[in-house]
Amino acid sequence: MHMMVLVEEERSINKGLLELSNQSDASGCRITACVILSTFVAVCGSFSFGVAIGYTSGAEIGIMKDMGLSIAEFSAFTSFSTLGATFGALFSGKMAIVLGRRGTMWVSDILCVIGWLCIAFAKNVLCLNFGRISSGIGIGLISYVVPVYIAEITPKHIRGTFTFSNQLLQNSGLAMVFFFGNFISWRKMALLGALPCVIQGIGLFFVPESPRWLAKVAADEELEDSLLRLRGRDADISREASEIQVMNKMLESDSKSSFSDLFQRKYRHTLVVGVGLMLIQQFSGSTAVVSYASTIFRKAGFSVAIGSTLLGIFMVPKAMIGLILVDKWGRRPLLLKMQLLPKLTPVLTFVCVTLYIASYAVGVGALPWIIMSEIFPMNIKVTAGTLVTLVSWSSSSIVTYSFNFLFEWSTQGTFYIFGAIGGAALIFIWLLVSETKGLSLEEIQTSLTRQPNEINHV
């Protein structure tokens, strides 16, 4: 009898959500200065993220010469960032719940600044590696909390575009490394990597907390104040506030977030999609190609200086393409089309690397993080978000450490492996990844977690 009451209550809540989503809400379509500022502050950390990913490509020659590193030691230094990010990913979801989205970004800023300063002023390998691990832990937190925060504060019709700005700023960080790596020392580049974290740390004092997190901790007054700041003081936020609170009430009837909850039948599909996209993202070789771009150019006999400079110039415009297309084409079409592109390029090293990185940035580089921030309900967002972020960074650590050795084994064989994984990714995306464009977070999560009999009933 008790179970029947719970089921009826959940069906009633689902019906209420559908009714709310069918009502027009003009305030939800407004793009306010507060949303723009909040997004900018959040993606400042993404710039440092991009610098960290591409840092070893631009700094490879200088660091190996000045610090006397062997190939194995430099490979370890490169992978320490992803190793630290793996550790940060373990605590990212829980920290985002306990400290809030803003509090987690503050912690990541402190870790990143400490890490970059240790690298910039390193006198020995130990200090160098410590700095790499510290900044890695920081970007592990950033990689989870930034897309989640942006997705939770932006109106649904521009959520994809604003969340994609995370990738745009990552590419801006990469562009800085590739472009200026030919002109400034690796120590100065490390200082530039710390600067956006300082800007973010200050900017966080002036932006609101995520309304979804405030609903989670039952801070109703703060929730309304946050929505008013984000949508405008004269906006009618009643429908959006009701939708958030109704969804939160429905999720409170479930068990509290734990690892075992992830394997409930209703969450199985979202978990497979989240984890699968992160595995595709990393084992298609993306991080390794970015981290070792200069090595690839050198191995092919192409000028490292010219290749890195042109790649730096190309980074930001190609990320802008994804920013424009993500809410026009949708997530699923972009993933499918951008997985095809690397397989169709001619065998010219610079062209291939450039188009590979471009298709990665527009497709599988950014979209798994956007989709991850959208598909998991609040009651499992901690454990599910932590798991997929952990999968991303642990697999990235494996790829970045092994790439140099694979490259020495067989240049062609290495990219054949990446190509085969990319082919398998097309099948996975075609069969399992649903479109989320134009839907609110509550609509997405309700449609993905309802059982077939519940859908029919509603």
Structure write-up:
With 458 residues, the chain is mainly α. The chain has helices at 2-22, 33-67, 71-98, 100-120, 125-153, 159-180, 186-203, 211-216, 220-231, 238-252, 265-283, 286-291, 293-299, 304-325, 331-340, 349-362, 367-375, 378-409, 411-432, 441-449, 452-457. α3 runs antiparallel to α18 (378-409) and α11 runs antiparallel to α17. It starts with a helix and ends with a helix.
Structural class: mainly alpha
Query: How would you classify the quaternary structure?
Result: single chain
Order of helices and strands: HHHHHHHHHHHHHHHHHHHHH
Could you give the distance between the termini?
A: 21 Å
Rg estimate, integer Å: 22 Å
**Total number of strands:** 0
**Arithmetic mean of pLDDT:** 76
Helix tally equals 21
User: How much of the residues is beta strand, in percent?
Assistant: under 5%
Shape: globular
Main sheet record: none
Flag low-confidence runs: 1-24, 341-348, 451-458
| Share of residues in helices | over 70%
Give the structure's gist in a few sentences.
The chain is mainly alpha-helical and 458 residues long. 79% of the residues lie in helices and 0% in strands. The N terminus and C terminus are likely disordered.
